[in-house]
Amino acid sequence: MDILILAVVIALVAVGAISGLVVSSRKKKQLPPPAPPSTPTITAPPAEPQMGEDAVETAEEPRRTIEEVGLPEAAAPAPAPVAEPEAPAAPEIEVPEPTAGRLVRLRARLARSQNSLGKGLLTLLSREHLDEDTWEEIEETLLVADVGVVPTQELVDRLRERVKVLGTRTPADLRALLKEELLTLVGTDFDRVVKTESGEDTPGVIMVVGVNGTGKTTTTGKLARVLVADGRSVVLGAADTFRAAAADQLQTWGERVGARTVRGPEGGDPASIAYDAVKEGIAEGADVVLIDTAGRLHTKTGLMDELGKVKRVVEKHGPLDEILLVLDATTGQNGLTQARVFAEVVDITGIVLTKLDGTAKGGIVVAVQRELGVPVKLIGLGEGPDDLAPFEPEAFVDALIGD
Ligand code: GDP
C-alpha cells in the first residue's frame, strides 16, 4: 500500500514538473520581442502632446547590457533593447527649459564674448590719470563694440561729467557708475515682452523676418520652444519657401516640442502658407502662430512685395501681433543696413539679436534700438535649442561688466 501511495506521489510530481516545464517554455516562446515603436506616417505631432513622457527620460539613461544588469543569460527572456538599434524611434516630445533666468544661465557666454567692452571700459576708467588719450581709448572701445557714433559720444560725455563730480574713484564707485550709464544707454523703459496674445479668441500671430543666414529659422524654432516652455501651444508656418531646407528644419524644431508645422511645396507661395498656418492655428485653438518668412534681399521692391503680401494675407484673419526682425550681431554695420531696409518694408515691433555668443560687438544692442526705435526682445547666445533668452537689460549689463 505504502509503495502504491509512493508511486502515485512520484507520478504526480513528475506530471507537475513536466507541465511546469511546458508552461515555462511556452512562456519563453510567448515572450514577444520588444515591440518596435510605431512609425508615424504623418509629419505633424500628436494633437495633444504629453509633455515629459517617459520616453524622454529613458532616452537619456545609458542602456545596460544583460551582464551589467546581472541577469543570468538563461533568464534573459528576449534580446535586450540594445540589440535593436535600427528600430525607428517615435518622435519624442521634449520639455524645453523654462525661460525665466535663461539670460542668467547664459551670462557666462555673454560675459566671455563681451569681455573687451564692459571690463575694458572699467579698466580704462580705473586708470590713475584720466587723460585725453584714455578718453579716446574709451571712445574707441565703444565704437569697436558697435555702440554707434552718437550713443558713444553721449556716453563718453556723461562719463566725463560724472567722473569729475565723483572726485575720488573707488572701484565700487566706478562699477556702479558705469552700470548705471550703460543701463541708461541700453534702455530700461522699453516694453520687451514678445506679444503673443491677440486679445481676441484667435491665436496671437508673430511673423519672423530677416535676411537668410541670420538665424531666422533657428530663432523661429527656438521661439516655439520658449513659448511651449511658457505653457503656450504653437503652430508653425514654414513660409520660407525659397531656401530648400528651411521647411524641414522648422518642422523638426516643431516636432521636438509638439508643434504642428504648416508647409507647402518648395518654391510655393509664402503668403498662402502663412494664411493656412493661421487658419490651422484658429482651427486647433492654438495660442500662437509663428510664421517664418524668406529673407532674400534681392531688391527692396521684391522683398517689399513678398513680405507685404504675406502680411496682408495673414491680416485677413486679424492683425499681426508681432513682427520680429532677426539680426546677426556679428554683421555690424551690415546688420544695421539690413535693419533699415526691413523697417521700410514692414513695421518691425521687436528685434532678435542672434550670435551674441560669437562676437564682442554687444554694442549693436544700443545701435539697432536707436536706429529703429524698437526694442531688442530676445537674444541668441548659442546653437543649442534653449540658447535663446528674453533680453533683460540689467542681466545684460551685469554680464558686460561682471560682478
Ligand atoms: P536662416 O537662413 O536665417 O533661417 O538661418 P538658420 O536659422 O538656418 O541659421 C544659420 C546658422 O546660424 C545655423 O548654423 C544656426 O545654428 C546658427 N545660429 C543661429 N542662432 C545662433 C546663435 O545665437 N548663436 C550661434 N553661435 N549660432 C546661431
Automatic annotation (TrEMBL):
- Specify where it is mainly localized: membrane
Q: Any idea of its EC number?
A: 3.6.5.4
**How does it sit in the bilayer?**
Peripheral membrane protein
Q: Where does GTP bind?
A: 210-217, 292-296, 354-357
User: Is Cytoplasm included in the keywords of this UniProt record?
Assistant: yes
Q: Where is this region: Disordered?
A: 25-64
Residue ranges of domain SRP54-type proteins GTP-binding in the record:
375-388
Q: Which InterPro entries match?
A: AAA+_ATPase, P-loop_NTPase, Signal_recog_particl_SRP54_hlx, SR_rcpt_FtsY, SRP/SRP_N, SRP54_GTPase_dom, SRP54_N_sf
Q: Where in the cell is it found?
A: Cell membrane; Cytoplasm
How does the annotation summarize its subunit structure? Answer: Part of the signal recognition particle protein translocation system, which is composed of SRP and FtsY.
Specify the protein name: Signal recognition particle receptor FtsY
Which organism does this sequence originate in?
A: Streptomyces avidinii
What gene name is given for the protein in this entry? ftsY
